[in-house]
Amino acid sequence: MNIPENLQYTTDHEWVLISNGEAKVGITDYAQDALGDVVFVDIPATGKVVMVGETVTEVESTKSVSDIYAPLEGEIIKINEELDESPELLNNDPYGEGWIFVIQVTNDTTTHALLTPNQYRELVEG
Questions:
Q1: DSSP state of 109
Q2: 4 confidence band (pLDDT: 50, 70, 90)
Q3: Dihedral of CA 90/125/55/78: which sign?
Q4: Residue 69 φ/ψ region, left for φ over 0, alpha for ψ in the -120 to 50 degree band, beta for the rest
Q5: Distance between CA atoms of 104 and 21, rounded to whole angstroms?
Q6: Is the backbone of residue 47 left (phi > 0), alpha (psi -120 to 50) or beta?
Q7: Nearest CA to 38 among 79, 95, 81, 98?
Q8: What is the CATH number assigned to the segment(s) 8-109?
Q9: Does this model's pTM top 0.70?
Q10: What's the average model confidence in pLDDT over 97-115?
C-alpha cells in the first residue's frame, strides 16, 4: 500500500497536500483499492464553502457509493474536471492525476486534526 510521506491524511481515507494556503485533496491508495473500479465522480462546484467533515462529493464504484468529506475548512477553488471523462484516474493515479478538489484554507487550526503518514499507516494496518 502506497502512503506518500509528503502528504497528510484523514481517518476517512482522504489525502491532503497543503501549499501556500491551498489544500489539494484526493482519496488514498487504500480507499481506491477498497472501492474497486471507480466509474463516476460527482464533481463538486467551485465557490462552495465547506466545513471540516462536510460531504463535498461522491465517488461511485462497481462496489458502492462513497462520500468524500472536506478535510479542512475553506472554499473549493479548483476541481479536477478530468475526472468527469476519466473517473478511473482515482484508481490509476490516486496521488497524482486523480486529485479531486482544492480548498482555499480559511482556518489553519483545522489542519491539526490531520494524520501524519505514520499515524495513517497505523490506522489502516492496525
A1: G
A2: very high
A3: negative
A4: beta
A5: 6
A6: left
A7: 98
A8: 2.40.50.100
A9: yes
A10: 90
